[in-house]
Amino acid sequence: MEKADKGKRAQKRLPRARAREMLDVLEKTYPNARSGLRYDNAFQLLVAAILSAQTTDKQVNRITKDLFTRFPAPEDFAAAEPEELEPYIKSCGVYRNKAKNIVGAARMLVERFGSEVPNDMDALMQLPGVGRKTANVVRANAFGEDAIAVDTHVFRVANRLGLADAKDVLHTEHDLMKSIPREKWSCAHHWLIWHGRMVCRAQNPKCGGCPLRSLCRHYAGTHKSG
């Protein structure tokens, strides 16, 4: 059954030549696209990425400025209780869970990884609060690994464009890895995020001014001529 589903998704995805054409347009449209999170090292990025769930990058950056001053290193977070973090991150969604996860992740890093953030997917996903998206954000941005992190923007835009044809983030990630050349995975992640924020919004997307409208599966389906 799973093989059949893969086959159906492959048939619905755009041809690679068209996908490359889309990527060229995205690259020209968002040449300076990069992570909106501010960080000085892999650990700070890990914390910021955990905080970013259900929270804007702008809000996370406001939070981490004081948070990293008070807790500058993994050992400082590991020695703290989650309640000590809460006043700093209270403006974040589900802040109590995030505080527990950050402290738990810091303690595991200190105890098992010599206070260093690993760049291995399996090792990263052992950390509390770290799923595939957060792990891929860290691997791509802190370590320069080829990875595609699928957040809500990437999921929405990829499936609208036809770069993916999936109902969940895991299969969307797999589809994107097949549609996009490996060396462009990390950049494409940022291009898709920016396009989702600026043009291909969840509500009232700006299809009329979209540079990809002539290539987009969603636009073709919702703006039929005649």
Textual characterization of the structure:
By secondary structure, the protein is an all-alpha fold. It is elongated and about 60 Å long. 61% of the residues lie in helices and 0% in strands. The protein folds into 2 domains: 106 residues, Endonuclease Iii, domain 2, CATH 1.10.1670; 102 residues, Endonuclease III, domain 1 (Orthogonal Bundle).
- Could you give me the name of the CATH homologous superfamily of the largest domain? Helix-hairpin-Helix base-excision DNA repair enzymes (C-terminal)
Q: Would you count the extended β strands for me?
A: 0
Number of helical regions: 13
| Strand portion | under 5%
What portion of residues is helical? 55-70%
What's the helix-strand series? HHHHHHHHHHHHH
Can you give the mean pLDDT? 93
Write the layout of secondary structure elements.
Layout: H1 2-12, H2 16-29, H3 42-51, H4 57-70, H5 74-78, H6 82-89, H7 95-112, H8 121-124, H9 132-143, H10 152-161, H11 169-179, H12 185-198, H13 217-222
Could you write a compact summary of the structure shown?
The protein folds into two domains: 2-32 and 148-222, Helix-hairpin-Helix base-excision DNA repair enzymes (C-terminal) (Endonuclease Iii, domain 2, Orthogonal Bundle); 42-143, Hypothetical protein, domain 2 (Endonuclease III, domain 1, Orthogonal Bundle). It has 13 helices and no strands. It has helices at residues 2-12, 16-29, 42-51, 57-70, 74-78, 82-89, 95-112, 121-124, 132-143, 152-161, 169-179, 185-198, 217-222.
